[in-house]
Each structure stands twice: as structure tokens, then as C-alpha cells.
Amino acid sequence: MLKIVQVPHKVLNSSTIPVTKIDQKIKDLVYEMEETLIAQIDPQGVGLAAPQVGLPLSLFIMKTSPKAQTEVCINPKILQIEQKIPPKVEKEENNKLEGCLSIPHIWGPLKRPSRVLLQYQDLTGETHTKWFSGFKAIVIQHEVDHLHGILFTQRSLEQKASLYEEKNGDLEKMKY
After folding, report:
1. pTM
2. Residue 77: is its pLDDT beyond 50?
């Protein structure tokens, strides 16, 4: 199983390089990433980008529920975003909290568009262009951010949202 790197590891704040050849080495990496993602239970992981396992490669996987098939996205590019962000909610605590396996015990409410058009390659090298919506669209945006060296905490701060630290099962607002 691969080790998930955590902040402040420099690979998490760097842009990735394209995967130029989908060979057995890349397939083995994806398999190991899938094993690593499935092993994340508290909290359960739903996506994992190559930088999170210390590699500056442009690829991520997502498995949005325990029974879902793992989806592999190599050299992904978000081509279009549908700006259907839900109307402003009075209390930011009511927004979906986002977290990250590379930033344990930290959570933040984030507003992200609900639909994205993604172009990516699968493990056979075939290129796909497909719309994703809802939770998958959120996961994709989070993982694509990783490929550009952007962490969800940065997005939270850009949206002037609070970050929360999990302590003994409770969330405490962080001071920064």
C-alpha cells in the first residue's frame, strides 16, 4: 500500500506533469492507489490524486461509494463548468464540508459548481469527454485542484469560509 503524503509536502503545492505513456508501471500505480484509497476508512476516501502519494503525475482515481467502480482519470482537463452553485446559505455550517486525506482532521465548507465537462484518458489510453454532476463533479474539482497544486483549504480561504479541526469527534472552528 502507498503512503499518503500530508501537508506541508512540496508535491502537494506543485503542478503535475502529463502521463506520456500508459504502461504497466502506470497500471500498477493505479492499482496501488486504489488499494490505498479503499483502505481509508476514518474518514472514508472518495478520491486520490497522484501527488497525494508523492508523485507529480497528472492522474487521479475516484470511488464515490464503497460499492462504486473505481474511475481512473489520466491527464484530465475540465473543459467547461456549469456555474449552478446553490443559492447562498445563511450559515456556512450548512454547506457541504470538504476534507482531504493529505490534510487530516481539517474540514471546510466549500461551494463548487455542480456540473463539469471533463476530458480524460482511461487505462487503455482512450480519450473520453463526459459531463459529471453532483458529488462526482465535486470530487473531480477537488482532485483536479490537486493536479495544479491547489488544496481545498486554499479554496475555503478564497471563499472566506471558516476551517474546522476535528477534535475528539467534534468540529472546532480554527483561528487563523
Report:
1. 0.91
2. yes
C-alpha–C-alpha distance, residues 102 and 72, integer Å:
19
92 is catalytic: no
Grid cell locating 86: 446553490
> Helix, strand or coil for residue 17?
strand
Whole domain around residue 62: which residue ranges? 10-173
C-alpha cell at 124: 487503455
Catalytic residue among 35, 98, 126, 143: 143
Confirm whether 2 is domain-assigned: no
| Distance, first Cα to last Cα, the chain | 34
- Which is nearest to 49 in space by CA: 172, 135, 150, 124? 150
What is the number of domains present in the chain?
1
pLDDT band at residue 84 using 50, 70 and 90 as cut-offs: low
Are the beta carbons of 115 and 156 closer than 8 angstroms?
A: no
CATH, residue 117: 3.90.45.10
Q: Write the CA distances from 32 to 28, 39, 119, 128, integer angstroms.
A: 6, 11, 23, 23
Assigned domain for 51 exists? yes
